[in-house]
Amino acid sequence: MSSSGVAAVMMALRASVFRWVSEDISSTHYLTNRFTLQTQQRCGFRKVAKKVEPKKGVAEEVEQTEILHKKGEAPAPDPPTPRIPARSFGRLVKPLVFTIGFTGCSFGGAAIWQYESLKSRVQSYFDDVKADWLEKKRPQKQAGLGKQVNQWWNSLSDGQKTVTGIIAANALVFCCWRVPSLQRTMVKYFTSNPSSKALCWPMLLSTFSHYSLFHMAANMYVLWSFSSSIVNMMGKEQFMALYLSAGVISTFVSYVSKTAMGRFGPSLGASGAIMTVLAAVCTKMPEAKLAILFLPMYPFTAGNALKAIVALDTTGLILGWRFFDHAAHLGGALFGIWYIIYGHELIWKNREPLVKMWHDFRTRGPGAGGNGSM
Question: Is 329 assigned a catalytic role?
Answer without folding.
Answer: yes
